Amino acid sequence: MNNLLFLGDSLTAGYGLQNVHQESFPALIQQKINQNQLPYQVINAGISGDTSAGGLNRIDRLLLQPINIFVLELGINDILRGIPPAITQQNLQAIVNKVKQKYPQVRMALMGMELPLNLGGFLATEFLAIFRKVAEANQMAFVPFFLEGVAGLPHLNLADRMHPSAAGYRIIADKVWPVLKSLMIE
């Protein structure tokens, strides 16, 4: 069995869902893996509130188990905490470096995030660019905006309007699945 590791924040952890083990993004991807009879086991290493620095602190321990595919979904909490985009980019790159060093053959995907331009103008643009830079520098599969089609839509989010509902995660999983499936059948 091959391992697919999701390293992320509350969006990976499934914050606020009734049944995280069935409704979170990684759980939905595991269901799609099972339906397609692919030999992968999902590891959900999402922690609510995590930052890129937190992920960097956790990655060595997570890499004690073999990893075949690595999915990185971190960074939104950095910007919400005022961490400069350049620091977030350095941390994301350091995480990727550690994964590649430990498992040179690993296939990787990066889930990008966006901020509304009215929340920061130049800062929002700079933040958006870090994900593409990291993905391109490391030849990672890339989803430019992880929450595309869900962000800002009340009927697809929890009452906090920041975290997807189970219905929102189904849309995200359907959108991201082709990217992840392509890594599994290379």
From TrEMBL:
Where the record annotates domain SGNH hydrolase-type esterase, the positions are 6-171
Q: Which residues form a coiled coil?
A: none
User: Tell me, which GO biological process terms does this entry list?
Assistant: lipid metabolic process
MF terms (GO), sorted A to Z: phosphatidylcholine lysophospholipase activity
Q: Where is the signal peptide?
A: none
Q: Which Pfam families does UniProt cross-reference here?
A: Lipase_GDSL_2
| UniProt protein name | Arylesterase
Q: What is the lineage of its organism?
A: Bacteria, Pseudomonadati, Bacteroidota, Sphingobacteriia, Sphingobacteriales
